[in-house]
Amino acid sequence: MTYQLTSLFIGLAIAGSILWLVRQAHLHGTQALWWIAFASAVVILGIWPRLSDWAAGYLGIGYPPIIAIVLGFGLVLIKMLTMDLERSRQGRRIRRLAQRMALLEAKLEEAVRPPVAAAKWQTPESQKSPTAPDDQVFPAPLEAPVPSVTIATSPGSHHPQAEV
């Protein structure tokens, strides 16, 4: 009789804790349902321990306590699967929100950016791109000399030396 009261007390303590966490908004309803189901199973098996013996006989299992282990393991696997599905859904939602935020930030920057003086960006007619529309002006490309580098090895050395 003592283990029945202990199981009942543990189940009620878990259920009370879960309800308190839901009430304080630390745990949402879908996750709370899993824990309430667990607490209910502890209470039910605590009050009626012969229920596992009856289920084991009905299912043809010779050692009744293994039912709790197998069911617990199965529930952990199901819980892990639902958590992975939720995490995938949230990751997809976060990516979409980040993309939307980047687009909105770009639009905001474009709207707030001061207009650039047209004279600063104008190039001579000879340097304009022939494929660009007439209203679009591009700055002249910068041309810098490219240094030539020669790599040589001295006759007695295996280490290359660069000459600029």
Using only C-alpha atoms, the radius of gyration works out to 36 Å
Spatial shape: elongated
Mean pLDDT: 77
Coarse structural class: mainly alpha
Helix-residue proportion? 55-70%
List the total number of helices.
5
Distance between the termini: 93 Å
Strand arrangement within the widest β-sheet reads 1-2
**Poorly predicted tracts of residues:** none
Beta-strand level of the residues, as a percent range? under 5%
Give the ordered list of helices and strands: HHHHHEE
Query: What kind of sheet is the major sheet?
Result: 2 strands, antiparallel
Kindly state the number of beta strands: 2
Structure description:
- With 164 residues, the chain is mainly alpha-helical.
- The protein is built from 5 helices and 2 strands.
- It has helices at 2-23, 29-47, 50-59, 65-112, 118-121, and strands at 150-153, 160-163.
- The protein has a two-stranded antiparallel sheet with strand order 1-2.
- A hairpin with a 6-residue loop joins strand 1 (150-153) and strand 2 (160-163).
- Helix 1 runs antiparallel to helix 2 (29-47).
- The radius of gyration is 36 Å and the shape is elongated.
- The protein starts with a helix and ends with a strand.
Q: Could you provide a short overview of the structure?
A:
Helices cover 63% and strands 5% of the residues.
SSE topology sketch:
Elements lengths: L1 H22 L5 H19 L2 H10 L5 H48 L5 H4 L28 E4 L6 E4 L1
Antiparallel strand pairs: 1-2
